[in-house]
Amino acid sequence: MDIKEISQGIFELSKGKKKQLATRNLNPGNSVYSEPLVVVDDVEYRRWDVHRSKFGAMVLKKFDVPLSPESKVLYLGAASGTTVSHISDIATNGLIYAVEFSSRTMRDLVMLCEKRPNIIPVLADAGHPSHYSHIVEKVDVIFQDVSQPNQAEIAAKNAEAFLKKDGFLLLAIKARSIDTVANPKKIFKEEVKKLTKDFAVEFEILKRSELEPNHEDHLGILARLK
């Protein structure tokens, strides 16, 4: 098994022609979502299932992931913590504020946080950042993966409240959560336009790419807050 670091804290495991993403396990001996654990040179890595992670799919699309071991991250739409756990492996000395609306899913997320002290669970609606402004500080990166129709607006509201100047937004646009019948490419164009012109904060779009084949009708966006 060969391994190389392709971005800070993100690794590519390869065996012959087969290649997979991985992160160094912050909690050795324990998997989060039954992902395989692989030991290379006495270091344990967790394979990253990109079919379950928009963030992982963005890495495969060559997004310049703006994470470091010290990053402070606001994750909107954390669910049970599949992708959050990999960010936890990367931002080992940082902090991840994991916002999730479902109380049932939050129970699983809390269990994850008990084993990973750099994750803070926040039970709240990402569309109302004022509801958790007493918990979340200014962050370096916002990652958003929510299923609401006003996805660009949610990103802008949270960026205005919490993103540092020149901070980064990683956004997964879900076309079918906005309109079930419209052409996804048209939806993507409109949402990108909103981010650059329609809100109190303005973004510079650094990269955009559809996330197929791993996630159908999804667009990944990397933007910087102007």
Summarize the structure in words.
With 226 residues, this protein is of the alpha/beta class. It folds into two domains: 2-47, 2-Layer Sandwich (Phosphorylase Kinase, domain 1); 54-225, Rossmann fold. The protein is 26% helix and 35% strand. The protein has helices at 54-60, 82-90, 103-115, 151-162, 175-178, 184-197; strands at 2-7, 10-15, 18-24, 37-40, 43-47, 72-76, 95-100, 119-123, 139-144, 163-174, 203-210, 218-225. The strands form two sheets. A seven-stranded mixed beta sheet has the order 8-7-6-9-10-12-11. Strands 1-2-3-5-4 form a five-stranded antiparallel beta sheet. The N and C termini lie far apart (42 Å). The mean pLDDT is 96.
Distance between the termini: 42 Å
* Fourth-tier CATH superfamily name of the largest domain: Vaccinia Virus protein VP39
- CATH topology grouping of the largest domain: Rossmann fold
Cα-atom Rg, whole angstroms?
17 Å
Mean residue pLDDT: 96
DSSP, total strands? 12
- The CATH class of the largest domain is Alpha Beta
How helix-rich are the residues, as a percent range?
25-40%
Biggest sheet: strands side by side, in what order? Answer: 8-7-6-9-10-12-11
Strand content: 25-35%
What key attributes describe this structure?
about 230 residues; alpha/beta; Phosphorylase Kinase, domain 1; Rossmann fold; 2 domains; seven-stranded mixed β-sheet; five-stranded antiparallel β-sheet; about 25% helix; histone H2AQ104 methyltransferase activity; SAM-dependent_MTases_sf; RNA-binding; rRNA processing
